[in-house]
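Data deposition worksheet. Section B asks for the primary sequence of the deposited chain exactly as it was used as input, without tags or linkers unless they were present during the calculation. Section C holds the resulting structure in token form. Section D is free text for depositor observations; keep each observation to a single sentence. Incomplete worksheets are returned to the depositor.
Section A, Depositor: J.P.
Section B:
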Amino acid sequence: MGSAAALSVQLSGNLKLGSRHHLEEMGHETDLFASYFKQGIFYLEGGVESGFKHVEPETYTTKLLLIKGKRYPRVYTLPVAASSLNEGDCFILDNGLKIYFWDGQQANSQEKIKACEIAQAIKNNERKNKATLFYPRDVGGQVEDDFWALLGGKPAKINPAVPDEGPSASEDELTRYSLYHVSDASGSMQLTEVTERPLRRTHLNDSDTYILELYD
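Section C:
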């Protein structure tokens, strides 16, 4: 994290135009940041093999992807097991030349649309249209049997839906923040909290630095 911050400052210094720095935490990205990734944000496992080694579809390692989120989907890699599924989300079982799309009964329509788009993108782009896309929950039969076999067998009961978001915060909780004024006008560096509310543009001085701290 320290290296990323330092490199951001270095990059900013080399830009001809002024820039601003924003901290984005994994799993808590802002809508603005997420909007730059139209096909969703993919959280991939690290390591040399997954990052740099080219793998042919015929020898592809089976992956189970969770697609979660309404407007800007996030894609997580889960253990390839039936216990990873739940009725509230959409999943893609990527087995190389066979790709399975499975949607929970309580998954919302936006998640289903996004998940279908991602499954199609894997099929068309990563596999160059050589893979086949299956919908085991819709067609049943051998397709569904093969799907559950890859996951270690169909469970007696599928896990219930997991909420996409926590309970709504109150207005006070949403506006919990602190603004600090950093200045050396007195001859020494001082940090002073701006306590007046609500915050206004007039609180800022272009000659000084400010720190806005937001609380979860």
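Section D:
The domain at 31-150 is CATH 3.40.20.10 (Severin).
Residues 201 and 210 are 12 Å apart (CA to CA).
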